[in-house]
Amino acid sequence: MTATTAVSAPGTGAATTGAPPVVRFEKVNKSYGNVRAVADLDLTLYPGETVALLGPNGAGKSSSLDLLLGLRHPDSGRVEVFGTTPRQAIVRGRVGAMLQSGALMEDVTVRELVGLACELHPKGHPVDEVLERAGIAEIASRKVNKLSGGQEQRVRFAFATAGASDLIVLDEPTTGMDVSSRQTFWGAMREQTKQGRTILFATHYLEEADAIADRVIVLHGGRVLADGSSAAIKAMAGARRINFELDGPIDGTALRALPALTGIEISGRTVRIRSTDADATVHAVYRLGLYPRGLEVTGLGLEQAFLAITDAATDVSTGPATDMAGDTAPTVEESAR
Amino acid sequence: MKALVKLEIARTLRNRKFMFFTVVYPSVLFLLIAGSTDADERVPGTGLSMPLYYMVAMASFGALTAGLMGNGERIAKEREGGWTRQLRLTPLPGRGYVAAKIAVGAVATLPSIVIVFVVAAAVKGVRLDAAWEWAALTGAIWAGSLVFAALGVAIGYLATGDAVRPLTMIIYFGLSILGGLWMPTTSYPQWLRNIGDYLPTHAYTALGQAIELGGAPHAKDIALLIGYLALFAGGAAWLYRKDTRKA
């Protein structure tokens, strides 16, 4: 009943570089009670990539990062960072990381705290340099427990970039930042990428992933749903749901041949289509000489768009619930033609 | 690692409330308990006067309190807040974290010991035979308190939230009473004394008492304390490393 075109974009840097991977997940599983946070996750990051880990809350982003950083251990499978254990990689000063939340040390100044990170790092930078780059030089003498949310995030960023680490991991780094501090933040981030660092950050904003990352990995239910260049992912996320009714006999074969189609469902007179290019698809419907009634084009939202596109993959993992996702999720009415 | 030790000490000294209570509490207890005792009164089974006995006991008790209570609760709070998670993303080894926390305990305890001695000498007229005994007592009680600072770190990693206070209390009172910090164990039944003999608190008070009596501490007590220190510090470092609690 559903014709599916599987779209799986290749990892961008993966095939082109022969360098040993920075991070490697091999069939990694992690459950909390009966919640499967990470399911058979395979993932490889290569040097110099800026990778966004994209997905809604509960997709397994933070769990994956925890595993990558050795804060948790997988139930099964292997996590390797620079060919060794996460802990070893951190001890060698190859990884700098910033967590999404969590208190900082109390009763100390910003400068003291960042200075601590610089001293603990085997290849630590001078404190002033780190403070300057994180844009917190002017609040250096302020107590850490008296900062705004955005300032606190920048202190965390400074903590993560206190030394010359080869991989920087950031878990939803811009949480709590206003628009201007976001911009400053990503500016500082680009500085890091220019120095050839590998960056991995989690976010649930496609725009953020698109603007910063050159590779985007979409997680859902602890699995990789899509992995590709940010352009490819953006194109996928542009998926639309098109619904209409037809009078008279329905020519299924012609409908299935519509352009940009990723899924079609015909029940009675109702046709439900998923398309990566709604304009082209709708145009082709008219060109077939059909007169669709009650035509409705709906944006699927990021998660639903990926679910729709990778039906084959998700049917296995989440079963019938996925089919409902597009209908029940809050969607944006794009246009009704 | 040195950086963390320095920073931990600096911020503890800044915490005036904590420092005030840590420093003043043992002296107040001493005055409350030993205030009514007579200088001629002797502790049964020893040749010690009551005020002298309580001076050492309360200095030890205060040092134990500072290490155990101070560290345990503060660490549990830091774990819950998520700070230790962030710290674990640095190359800092587990022993560095534990060393810093023990150092914090040591910094807070030293003044509390000295003040109990000053109060005891000034108010209750406690005198020792030789000046070296004061120095030796201070050193022994201070060094011994490291064991309990280490235990505090371990407790901070064993329990969280609501559990940490009752757990600390049980260990705290259990160790203090059975180890003879509050009253001489000579009044306890034999089986209880047998247990008490192997507690770190007993070895701890024994250190002080041996010096009070003008002798050197027994090797057994020192060995016992070093053993406990290694156990608690090692356990704490191990717990720090494997802690997977989420913020």
UniProtKB/TrEMBL annotation, chain A:
Pfam family, one: ABC_tran
Membrane-related topology note: Peripheral membrane protein
UniProt keyword terms in alphabetical order: Antibiotic resistance, ATP-binding, Nucleotide-binding, Transport
Location within or outside the cell: Cell membrane
InterPro entries: AAA+_ATPase, ABC_transporter-like_ATP-bd, ABC_transporter_ATP-binding
Species for this entry: Streptomyces niphimycinicus
GO molecular function term, any single one: ATP binding
Chain intervals for the UniProt region annotation (Disordered): 318-337
ABC transporter domain mapped to chain residues: 23-246
Protein name: ABC transporter ATP-binding protein
Automatic annotation (TrEMBL), chain B:
Keywords: Antibiotic resistance, Membrane, Transmembrane, Transmembrane helix
Listed Pfam families: ABC2_membrane_3
Signal as UniProt keyword: no
Membrane topology: Multi-pass membrane protein
All residue ranges annotated as the ABC-2 type transporter transmembrane domain in the record: 53-238
Bilayer-spanning residue ranges: 18-37, 52-70, 98-122, 134-159, 166-183, 222-240
Protein's cellular compartments: Membrane
Top-level taxon of origin: Bacteria
Protein name: ABC transporter permease
